[in-house]
Design brief:
2 copies of one chain form a homodimer.
Chain A: H1 2-9, H2 15-29, H3 36-51, E1 53-62, E2 65-73, E3 94-99, H4 105-112, E4 116-118, H5 135-140, E5 147-153, E6 159-168, H6 181-222, H7 231-246, H8 250-260, H9 273-276, H10 284-300, H11 307-318, H12 339-353, H13 365-374, H14 382-390, H15 392-401
Antiparallel strand pairs in A: 1-2, 1-6, 2-3, 4-5, 5-6
Helix pairs in contact in A: 2-3, 3-6, 7-8, 7-12, 7-15, 8-11, 10-11, 11-12, 12-13
Chain lengths: 404, 404
């Protein structure tokens, strides 16, 4: 209590007052806008302030290994390369991989789910099971001494990550530079908040993945009658996402297009076999009946307040419209055609060109690209074709990965 | 600072120390198992401890009205009726509805997104815009005096609820019984955590609803060729959920069955029109081809790590098996047939009986019930038929709501 009496006489907030204020602040900012990455960065920063740590790291458990997702070091900001845009399990996280075992402190903590408080990493009793991995210090020249290493445990009791606070600094009025029991309590509280963030982000990812899985399977099944591999659906969906992203749609909208575009032909479910799988050319009546799949698809998807289904409705209805107004069902022209429909038109035709059908062979990749270029201004939005051509590398990767 | 000096001399933790400890505790318990309801209850309890409030309420915004979801009162525990099992937007919340406007303090706070700190609800300056709604006090005889009313604001800046802390008690060493500026800071921090809980629970609900919407629409579309209303899919799905829940499956499994069962006939997508929609009786070959829809459905859904799709695979494969082993495709017998398949068999046949088909009229509800009873031990699991019969009231409600 000595510091609180001192500060009281100086009329300044005590150490506990300051810490309490910071912790209140942490709680209050937890609800601010931002990605999971930004939230974790902020939690790490606040934790370091609360316990006076010079550096700190947040690791995530990713396929039974630890990868760092946040890294802060006041003494050596050069060591803190920002990781790639953060999507938890999805993207490869930065930095070295650490095994979940005793060969490192973070690995030990992740494995045994117990926090470690270490006064000097280079002078640990020989009796302990955990080891300090000196390789990072050797590479960087940074010298680690005191450490607080805290497991991030989710509600189910699983380790989702590790919070590591490094090198306690000397706060005013203190002489000892080891982390205290109180520091550990604070770190545990922040670790709990971080685990909640990670768990929620993962849960959202899982729910989204389930949803996409369902859409892909059912949309693919709906193509059974004219394409039993279903790869067309997947390719078109990934092409659409690529075009959307390169057209500047932003990650969220691009993801909705990824989820929505597999359903572009869902209206074909209402077209009888006699027309859908007819080997020869269609009569005028049959062609008009076939064109109804756009309207029918929109009807199946109509009136949802779910943004994926709403986008799918728009794509189903508009993906056969043409830039010059000669398409169907409405004969819309230019930018009157909703953007997702224009995107799907390019993706759908490109995939039809590169696919083998009963009545035609597959065009080679570069020939199909040329044919798309020829549709500029008549069939396709000229700007979107430019975007498509500039993303040719990404398109080719999808084409090769998803073509048997 | 006076209390911290006093307590220091007594070697007891200061007020701030206590509050800091409690707040650490709140953070640490945020990650414990439990429903959103339990989490909010716990947050309310901790907030009350931190500011010494005798009573408290958490309201949620639900269709532009406030309904209470947590209610605590140390003086009058009788007033705290536990609300129904809590599913945020889904169920009707307990208690009176409060409009989001100036006619009540909670309504005002929800509308204008600013906290209120009130020393005496019955003696507010006449100049303020907000009113204290005395009706609750009148009904209960409880006397409200001091109040802290805090909006729960989510990341997007929307009000998701209101935290209300009522009647500050006199803590040791203090004489004033109004909430302080510090109390308000604490309540804001807890409110932020509560808003995070609510937002995450709502986001999960939204993602689940989107997923169910997608499943229902695509499964319904897949039935286009032999049932253009698609109500069969919805009815079977709700019947399955009802049977599962009454068979003791628990809310989570019952929900998975609700989500999975619409896909039971998805394999029909692979059956040609010539067989699927043939008006007369099928030949032996045609019947066998038709039976393939079970195997085909399972193939479409095969090998997913998503539990909904995995359950759907099991149901698609097994819903035509019969208790006595005379079903298809595998001729499984008794409990060798997976439970969800046995449940769907009852639901599917019952719905076929009560539906009009090209070749038959619909049986009246009670006749269909009798016919199901006749299938005990041959077609159906006897225990599940008992469950079905005991849930007859719920079945009838679904039947009436979803039959045109």
């Amino acid at each position: 209590m000595s510091d609180s009496i001192n500060s009281a006489s100086l009329n300044l907030p005590s150490g506990t007052e300051l810490a309490f204020g910071t912790l209140l602040n942490v709680c209050s900012t937890l609800n601010q806008p931002g990605t999971a990455q930004e939230l974790l960065d902020n939690l790490l920063l606040q934790a370091r302030r609360l316990v006076n740590a010079q550096a700190g790291t947040v690791f995530l458990v990713n396929h039974s290994q630890l990868r760092f997702v946040c890294c802060q070091n006041d003494a050596r900001p050069d060591l803190c390369v920002a990781p790639k845009p953060y999507e938890l399990d999805r993207v490869s996280l930065s930095g070295t991989r650490i095994s979940v075992d005793e060969t490192s402190l973070a690995g030990y903590v992740a494995r045994y789910k117990e926090p470690l408080r270490i006064d000097d990493a280079y002078n640990m009793p020989s009796s302990v099971c955990h080891k300090f991995d000196t390789s990072h210090d050797k590479t960087t020249g940074y010298r680690t001494k005191s450490l607080l290493v805290i497991p991030l445990i989710d509600r189910l009791g699983d380790t989702v990550g590790v919070l590591q606070l490094i090198n306690k600094q000397i706060p005013t009025g203190e002489t000892d530079t080891a982390f205290t029991e109180r520091d550990q309590q604070i770190a545990l509280a922040v670790a709990s908040l971080a685990a909640v963030c990670i768990r929620n982000a993962k849960l959202r990812d899982t729910l989204r993945d389930s949803h996409l899985d369902t859409i892909m399977r059912l949309s693919t099944a709906a193509e059974f009658r004219d394409d039993d591999t279903g790869q067309h659906i997947r390719r078109v969906s990934f092409y659409c996402e690529t075009i959307a992203r390169n057209a500047g749609c932003g990650p969220e909208t691009s993801q909705i297009i990824l989820f929505a575009s597999p359903m572009h032909d869902i209206g074909k479910l209402g077209i009888p076999d006699a027309i859908l799988t007819k080997p020869g050319p269609l009569s005028r009546e049959e062609r008009l009946a076939m064109q109804e799949h756009t309207v029918l698809g929109a009807k199946i998807l109509n009136g949802s307040d779910n943004e994926i289904i709403a986008m799918a409705e728009s794509i189903a209805l508009a993906h056969h419209e043409k830039w010059d107004g000669s398409g169907y069902p409405a004969g819309l022209r230019g930018e009157d055609i909703p953007l997702p429909g224009r995107i799907c038109a390019v993706a759908d035709v490109f995939d039809a060109l590169t696919s083998k059908r009963v009545y035609k062979n597959a065009f080679p990749f570069s020939e199909a690209i040329d044919l798309i270029r020829q549709g500029i201004g008549t069939h396709f939005d000229p700007w979107l074709v430019d975007v498509f051509l500039s993303a040719r590398g990404e398109i080719e990767i999808i084409h090769e990965a998803l073509t048997e």
